[in-house]
Amino acid sequence: MMEEKLHKEPKKKVKDQAPIIEIKDLHKTFGHDNTILKGVNLILNKDENLVVLGRSGSGKSVTIKCIVGLIEPDKGEIKVFDENVLNISKSELNAIRVRIGFLFQSGALYDSMSVRENLAFTLSKHKRDLTEDEIEKEVMEALENVGLAEAVDKMPSELSGGMRKRIGLARTLILKPEIILYDEPTTGLDTITSREISELILDIKNKQKTSSIIITHDMACAKMTADRIIVLKDGVIHAEGTYEELEKDEDEWVRSFFQ
């Protein structure tokens, strides 16, 4: 693969519409010499599922954590909803964060709270003017969207791994985000449950018109959910295309993900 392809500018699929996320020349080093990102460029278009592939340590999770301010990059530009999130106030960043859902690998539920309390806490924290009845309605709607209304009174310890992922997703959906960042949504799940989560990701996109970045090692998930795929290698975007295009890529390293 030619060298210039390693540092190519992000491709814009929608000519007359600004990307919902645009990252330019993103760099991040941890410590003195652990350089993870070396100039990442990517865009996320509206109503698109973008899958990010790469070996462990390639910077996939670091990239999406930079988007929401969980990690501060050393250099670069990140535009979300056409706002440079690296140059805005904390209150402005928080206003943007409410519009972004982040599904962590673990689901990140509060173990001391029931499912209802987990979702209600998230909602009341960001929408303080809601009544108890309104909160209850939103909680049940979010659980119905992930097919787990019957789990409303369960504790996280009573849930399977797949159920925890679904509840974590319900907690993300309750704020009705425009963007969802999925960090390894099917990790640790069996094949059938992984497929159910992948189908849920597609269903959410179609019903709620979300735009998503999906970090995954699960090629079945990538094939099912991706409108477009980018591959990270050595801190930059190494390849980009549809699942079918990358599966037939001339680069042996890229094809290795699909074997």
TrEMBL record:
InterPro entries found in the cross-reference section: AAA+_ATPase, ABC_transporter-like_ATP-bd, ABC_transporter-like_CS, P-loop_NTPase
Q: Where is the ABC transporter domain?
A: 21-259
**Pfam families, per database record:** ABC_tran
Gene3D superfamilies per UniProt: P-loop containing nucleotide triphosphate hydrolases (3.40.50.300)
Q: What keywords appear on the UniProt entry?
A: ATP-binding, Nucleotide-binding, Transport
- Look up keyword Ribonucleoprotein and say if it applies: no
- Per the record, the domain of life is Bacteria
PROSITE patterns per the UniProt record, alphabetical? ABC_TRANSPORTER_1 (PS00211), ABC_TRANSPORTER_2 (PS50893)
* Gene Ontology molecular-function annotations: ATP binding; ATP hydrolysis activity
Matching entries from SUPFAM superfamilies are given as: P-loop containing nucleoside triphosphate hydrolases (SSF52540)
Under the heading PANTHER family, the entry gives: INTERMEMBRANE PHOSPHOLIPID TRANSPORT SYSTEM ATP-BINDING PROTEIN MLAF (PTHR43023:SF6), PROTEIN TRIGALACTOSYLDIACYLGLYCEROL 3, CHLOROPLASTIC (PTHR43023)
Name of this protein = ATP-binding cassette domain-containing protein
Species, as recorded: Flavobacterium potami
